[in-house]
Amino acid sequence: MNAMRREEEREVTGSGFFHPTTFTLDNGMEVVLVENHRAPVVAHWVWYRVGTADSPPGKSGLPHYLEHLMFKGTAKIPPGMFSKIVARLGGEDNAMTGYDFTAYFQMIARRHLATVMEMEADRMVNLRLSEEDCLTERDVIVEERRQRIDNDPAALLDERLTAVRYLHHPYRLPVIGWMHEIRSYTREDALDFYRTWYAPNNAVLIVVGDITREELEPLAARIYGAIPARPVPERRRVQEPEPQTRRIVELADARVRQPSVAVSFLAPGTRDGSPERTHALEVLADLLGGGTTSRLYRSLVVERAIAASAGCWYRSASLDTSTFRLWASPRPGVDPQEVEAALFEEITRIREEAPGEEEVARVRRRMVAEATYAKDSLNGIARIFGTTLTTGGTVADVEAWPELIRRVTPEQVHAEARAVLDPDLAVIGRLRAKPEERA
Amino acid sequence: MTGLSRRTFMAATGVGLVAPGIVTAAAAAGPNPRVEEVVGRSGVRAYLLREPSTPFISVRFVFADAGAAQDPPEKAGLANMASGLLDEGAGPYDSGSFRAALEDNAIRLSFDADRDGFSGRLETLNENRDLAVELLMLALTEPRFEEEAVERIRAQILTELRRRESDPNDRAGLAWFREAFGAHPYARAVRGTPETVAAITREDLVELTRTRLARGNLHVGVAGDITPGELADLLDAAFGSLPEAPQLPPVPATTLQRAGVVVEPLPVPQSVVVFGHEGIDRHDPDFYAAYVANYILGGGGFSSRLTEEIREKRGLVYGVYSYLMDLVHCPLWMGGLATSNENVKTAIGLVARECRRMAEGDVGEKDVADAKTYLIGSFPLRFTSNDSVARMLVTMSVQKLGRDYLERRNAYIEALTPEDVRRVCARLFSRDILIAVAGQPEGLEPTRAG
Model-level pTM? Predict the structure, then answer.
């Protein structure tokens, strides 16, 4: 199956899209280069194949905590100096954590690329953490959690909806972590995790910008290639059981002034799906909820005029079972139940009748045309390759994407709607106002 | 949520600034960016930076002084509502067919309003450029404002306003401007209130397009794969049929009306704090010194003193930042942070302490040198995306910096001495600060206005 898949990819990558160059260092570190010579700048990213879903038991969000601590120094770089050094070189840096990845980047003038490569390679293996820095950064994470989640009822419902959607798989964990577990993080937790997962053979180097393969390859070999490979565990995660139930998650909060509803389904990821299924689901998501000409917007927002907004998304870059979600916000004075019922009517409609060739063709054309804009951001290009390569996909998958989207048929879209959007297996999230208690 | 980032406020590093009128984007300069000034037969001008590598263009345009400050008080939110409706049907296209023409052809057209300006953005692949320009022209000159679309967008704004009622970021920001500007139009919410949005009529919308959108207050920046000749034609086709001059009553200049502490009670575990005072005019001789000073204090992300003292040393916040905001009638220096209710007082005290340090001249040789190497060294980063370039170009035009500004900009920063920075700090950071807090801050007493 896999071999066939690669065969097909090779066939369709003839045209290509970003035209990357790829090679692998002796220690197993993969390298992807996308040349872009419009400005003397490079985006330099290192992606680790480890993320929230690999949190140790009782330590949800630990990968994100480590991501913060990676800026706390090595023998060569004093605590807190990493970003300052990058800034003095005129660069910008940051990092991010997802369910399946942890990534670090600098955007910088090309003449400083070697310097930031040295710094990134250094902290891959030489991280030094003081007890005090670890405790202070834990407080920062507490504030980050409050800012992103606890201060916002919609974000809180989103977090709980995801936690309920997955009965078993660690995708149920919030990327930021549960508050009581954040408070339990220790320096040793972070260092154990670091020693387990951070290694060149578990990393992908992605460089986008003003440099050629001839220039990059020796640099990468000298700097990253000097780090010995070492055994890294397989990403073995508990998997979801067959879903059997429909569930409702309701958040009633006195702060809520504007109710909303979301309906979430399990959908295939890389390991339990196939590129064909993923592409069909992407087309389905766009057909249902992409923009103001999509079915959900036309039906709920324009024609029936019961919703202020409506849409859907599907997380296509996911190592394990992903989710497909539809959502809507009622217009003022409209019962949220009516909007929820309308979402299910649209689900029934797409399940009962295959979309027409014309409708699917329009969506495909639009998706492929929009992809051109992705070339307008060095970091955006790096993110596309990074998320794909850390979620079980390949460089060829990225390059073949436009061609494979063009091949999606109405029958495939219909089949995915029937397979994925089963109303009996939906998890429904409701955000509603709670009348304030009177004293 | 697919990912969390270490920094909440990319704006602090100047990457994420999209709001027109904020200085960072304009303050870029280049090794050799050859900006051309293109003039159509209709007299419409644009700054152009050509970039042939990808077959599309980004266009940013601003109608100066046409923003929310022009909205009648009882119709506050008018410019914002119009910005949501221009791309909802125009000329022969009803809303559905207009949206389909945009989306089916991957034409990105949108409008926005802030306090000072009414702005727009167009991105199109070259193969669809003619259609894109036609749609833009129709949106500006023949918007239909059909009842269905007007009521739909009104409902969207009302639901958004309701959602924001419980958002501490919004509540703090709105309170700050309300208290800062009293009776001046800047005090009003750009999006209006449920009452004022309900009062807006189709006639108000038509009137806005007729009086505020003209060639005389138009600024255009373009980046991408287009020749000057093609762009001249584009400018005529898109903007040539606009009236020559806008009819805009002048907005009075103003000053900050008060300082002190305002609290918006909100049942959230973490308070959001917005702080600020008057800033510096874009054409002040010490503007660049102020820009460097702000970088040192709160504009420099992880290199800034506010981040060092409040996040890195004490873990009180996830993000803290400050920036210069180029409001036409009252330039500001603004900042923000979010911290648990019990820490608000401490965090605010640290902001005040760091401002005082700056005011007292505690700015060293190395602080200034580091700021300069970042601000100059990071310049080429701004030239990696058409949209970012178009945004810089239109800001250059609005701020009247001149076609060759990008070639001159680094020299302004290079020439600064620590003495220049200390001088402006004494002026900028000795001002009384206005602080708005949304949340349940502990031990923090609001102060009276006046």
Answer: 0.93
Condensed to tens digits (0 to 9), the pLDDT of residues B281-327 reads 999 999 999 999 999 999 999 999 999 999 999 999 999 999 999 99
CATH for the stretch A247-433: 3.30.830.10
CB-nearest partner of A38 from B10, B319, B383: B383
DSSP summary character for residue B328: T
d(CA B345, CA B349): 6
The answer to whether B3 contacts A94, with C-beta atoms less than 8 Å apart, is no
Chain A closest CA to B370's CA: distance in Å?
Answer: 6
Q: Could you report the predicted ipTM of this complex, rounded to two decimals?
A: 0.92
Task: Measure in Å the smallest separation between the Cα of B19 and chain A Cα atoms.
Answer: 19
Suggest the residue from B2, B147, B313, B343 to mutate for an interface test with chain A (most A CBs closer than 10 A). B2
Of A9, A30, A67, A282, which residue is the catalytic one? A67
> What was the pLDDT predicted at A321?
97
Collect all residues of chain A within an 8 Å Cβ-Cβ radius of residue B374: 87-88, 90
Rounded to the nearest angstrom, the gap between the alpha carbon of residue B52 and the centroid of all alpha carbons in its chain is 28
Q: Do B200 and B90 contact (CB within 8 A), yes or no?
A: no
- CA neighbours within 13 Å on the CB side: how many for B354? 22
- Specify the 3-state DSSP secondary structure of B214: coil
Q: Are A199 and A230 in contact (CB under 8 A)?
A: yes
Compute the nearest-CA separation of B270 from chain A (Å).
6
Q: What's the confidence (pLDDT) of residue B6? A: 62
A253: nearest Cα among B58, B167, B423: B167
Q: Which residues of chain A have pLDDT under 70?
A: 1-15, 436-439
Topology of B22-239 in CATH?
Cytochrome Bc1 Complex; Chain A, domain 1 (3.30.830)
Residue B1: predicted pLDDT: 35
On whether any CB of chain A is under 8 Å from the CB of B441, the answer is no
**Residue-range domain boundaries for chain B:** 22-239, 260-393+400-439
Nearest to A258 among B10, B148, B163 (CB): B163
The pair of three-digit structure tokens given for residue A433, joined into one six-digit string: 């106002």
Give pLDDT < 50 ranges for chain B.
1-2, 8-31
Q: Of the candidates B272, B310, B444, which has an alpha carbon nearest to the alpha carbon of residue A139?
A: B310
Contact status of B318 with chain A (Cβ, < 8 Å): yes
Which of A35, A108, A292, A339 has the highest number of chain B CBs within 10 A, making it the mutation to test binding with B? A292
- How far is the alpha carbon of A256 from chain B, nearest alpha carbon, in Å? 7
Nearest to B374 among A71, A88, A95 (CB): A88
Question: Which residues in chain B have their CB less than 8 angstroms from residue A291's CB?
Answer: 99, 103
B266 touches chain A (CB under 8 A): yes
Query: Do B22-239 and B260-393+400-439 fold alike per CATH?
Result: yes
Domain B260-393+400-439 has CATH 3.30.830.10: yes
Q: Residue B102 belongs to what H/E stretch?
A: helix B95-104
Q: What tokens does A244 get?
A: 């059997």
The domain A15-223 is classified under which CATH number: 3.30.70.890, 3.30.70.1350, 2.60.120.260, 3.30.830.10?
3.30.830.10
Going from N- to C-terminal start, the domains of chain A cover: 15-223, 247-433
A67 among known catalytic residues: yes
Summarize pLDDT for A398-428 with one digit per residue, the tens: 999 999 999 999 999 999 999 999 999 999 9
Tell me, what's the pLDDT at B3? 52
